[in-house]
TrEMBL record:
Classification of source organism: Bacteria, Pseudomonadati, Pseudomonadota, Gammaproteobacteria, Orbales
Keywords: Cell cycle, Cell division, Cytoplasm, Septation
Any one cellular-component term (Gene Ontology): cytoplasm
Biological process (GO), any one: FtsZ-dependent cytokinesis
Pfam family, one: ZapD
Subunit structure as annotated in this protein's UniProt entry: Interacts with FtsZ.
Free-text function comment from the UniProt entry: Cell division factor that enhances FtsZ-ring assembly. Directly interacts with FtsZ and promotes bundling of FtsZ protofilaments, with a reduction in FtsZ GTPase activity.
Protein name from the UniProt record: Cell division protein ZapD
Length: 249
């Protein structure tokens, strides 16, 4: 992919909004998995926000339904001539394994909710500067522990969401693969369209155009307005016409 292009993704229903947020937070945990004094709060903020999403939504139930729907769609391809049935069956087996894990896993995030240290940090995160050493001496002491000690605990905390991570990853991969990018252009920085039921828009824009999309709408009708990021950049290009690529998933 052209490194000078940026992909923006916009959900068109509430469940997709939740999946994108969970995916984002799990990636943040991955980026900051080697915790030290410089990034510890980034890790715990992501962990706390992920726990909050899981607590407020029926993540397991909704994921089960969405993955089951993907499995049914894939199954319809088994009798189509020319399809790689071996590869398809492998994918279906993977989906079945994830569904089985989701159904047998204890309540998501329960072990973290019961962890006294994690809970003490979470309570202070909403207070500006609330994790200072005098506010949270246990956190200060934890940061002084050997890296191996911290790594072991971080791995255990991240593994609490391993099944969720695997389920979200494969579901989002399959969803994104349903959309093919098409080249488009719009005048006056505005584009609108109607189409079949869509859960996710993927918009690819050249970085040099200096614009980002603002999307409004729903699963069948949407509008995209491209906003100038910086007037000094836009002055170098034709602001009246924006070229972009769009994939509906």
């Amino acid at each position: 992919m052209d490194k000078h292009k940026v992909i923006f993704e916009h959900p068109l229903n509430e469940k997709m909004r939740t999946w994108l947020r969970i995916e984002f937070l799990i990636k943040q945990l991955e980026y900051n998995k080697t915790v030290n004094a410089s990034n510890a709060l980034l890790f715990f903020h992501s962990l706390s926000e992920l726990l909050e999403i899981v607590e407020r939504n029926d993540v397991r139930g909704d994921l089960n339904k969405d993955i089951e729907e993907q499995k049914q769609k894939l199954s319809t391809w088994l009798n189509v001539p020319g399809v790689d049935t071996h590869l398809l069956n492998e994918l279906l087996d993977k989906l079945n394994a994830i569904l089985a894990q989701l159904s047998t896993q204890p309540k998501m995030g329960q072990s973290l909710k019961e962890d006294r240290f994690v809970s003490s940090v979470r309570k202070r995160l909403t207070i500006p500067g609330g994790c200072c050493s005098f506010d949270l001496p246990s956190f200060h002491l934890w940061l002084q522990q050997p890296q191996d000690y911290r790594d072991t605990q971080i791995t255990a905390w991240r593994n609490s969401f391993l099944t969720l991570y695997q389920a979200i990853s494969i579901y989002m991969q399959l969803t994104r693969q349903t959309g093919v990018f098409k080249s488009l252009a719009c005048s006056n920085n505005f584009y609108q369209n109607t189409n079949e039921v869509t859960s996710l828009l993927r918009i690819r824009v050249r970085l040099s155009q200096g614009v980002y999309p603002q999307v409004s709408g729903n699963a069948t009708r949407y509008a995209i307005r491209f906003v100038n990021f910086e007037s000094s950049i836009m002055s170098k290009i034709d602001a009246s016409c924006v070229e972009f690529e769009l994939a509906s998933c």
